[in-house]
Amino acid sequence: MSFAVAADAYDRFMGRYSVPLAPQLADLAGISSGQHALDVGCGPGALTAELVRRLGSAAVSAVDPSEQFVAAIQERHPEVTVRRASAEHLPFPDQAFDAAMAQLVVHFMADPVAGLREMVRVTRKHGVVAACVWDHAGGQGPLSLYWDAARELDPNVEDESELAGAREGHLGELFEAAGLHEIEETHLTVSVEHPTFEEWWEPFTLGVGLVGDYAARLDPERQAQLRERCRERSPAAPFVLTARAWAARGLA
Ligand SMILES: C[S@@+](CC[C@H](N)C(=O)[O-])C[C@H]1O[C@@H](n2cnc3c(N)ncnc32)[C@H](O)[C@@H]1O
C-alpha cells in the first residue's frame, strides 16, 4: 500500500505541492460558506484544511483508505467527520453533501468510474463533483523530473503517465462515464521553490506513493545513480518547480 506511511513523510513529499493546489480545487468546486463538503482520498489533509477554513470543521467530512492518514486527520481536525474508506464504497447516504472533491486521487482508485459514481451518489442533485490529477502524461507533474531520470536509467520503468486522469481530457471522459452533467475541464498550476537539490530529493527517499514503491525496489547503488541523474537534470538551486494538474468539475 503506497500510502501506509507517516503523515509527516507525506507532507514533506507531496504536501509541499498539494497544499497550494487545494485552494484552487476548492475555488473550481465553488466552495463557500454554508455548504457541506466531502474530501475523498484526503491524505493527511491538504484539501481538508482548506475546506475547514472555508466551511468550518462541522461541515467537512473526509475519507481515506490509509489508517495513518485517517489518524492524522483525527488529530489535526478533531471535529471533522473522517472515515477509513475508499471512493468506491463511500460510507455516507445519498445526497449528503453539496460538493465532493478528490484531489490527486482518481489515478489511485481501483475503479475510477465507480469511485466518481459514488461521489455523484453522495452529492445532492445539482451539487458539484470536482477532481484533479497531476499532468504525469505531459511531463508537467511535480514528479516528472524524477520519472524522466528513472526512465533514462531503465526505459521499461512503469511511471504514472498511463494512470487515469493523468492525460489531457481523460478526467472529462471519466466524469461523463460517471454520469456527471455540465462538465468543465481546466488545469491548475502550482509553483514551489526548492532552496537546494537535497531539499527537493530527500522526501523521495521516504517511501511515499508509487515513487516510494519504485525506490524501495532499487539497490543502494541504483538509487545513488538515480539521485545523480536527477541532480544533472535539475536546474541550479535555488529553483522553482512549476507543476500542472488536469482538473474537472461537473454537476450531480
Ligand atoms: C496523492 S495522495 C492525495 C492526498 C490529498 N488529497 C492531497 O491532495 O494531498 C492520494 C491519496 O489517495 C488515497 N487513495 C488511494 N486509493 C484510494 C481510493 N480508492 N479511494 C480513495 N482514496 C484513495 C491514498 O491513500 C492517498 O491518501
Would you mind describing this structure in some detail?
By secondary structure, the chain is α/β, with parallel strands linked by helices. The protein is built from nine helices and seven strands. It has helices at 7-28, 46-55, 67-76, 112-121, 144-153, 170-177, 197-201, 209-216, 220-233; strands spanning 37-40, 60-64, 81-84, 97-103, 123-134, 181-194, 239-251. A seven-stranded mixed beta sheet has the order 3-2-1-4-5-7-6, with helices on both faces. α2 (46-55) links the parallel β1 and β2 (60-64). α1 (7-28) packs across α2. It is globular, with a radius of gyration of 18 Å. S-adenosylmethionine binds next to α1 and α2.
Explain the layout of strands and helices.
Blueprint: H1 7-28, E1 37-40, H2 46-55, E2 60-64, H3 67-76, E3 81-84, E4 97-103, H4 112-121, E5 123-134, H5 144-153, H6 170-177, E6 181-194, H7 197-201, H8 209-216, H9 220-233, E7 239-251
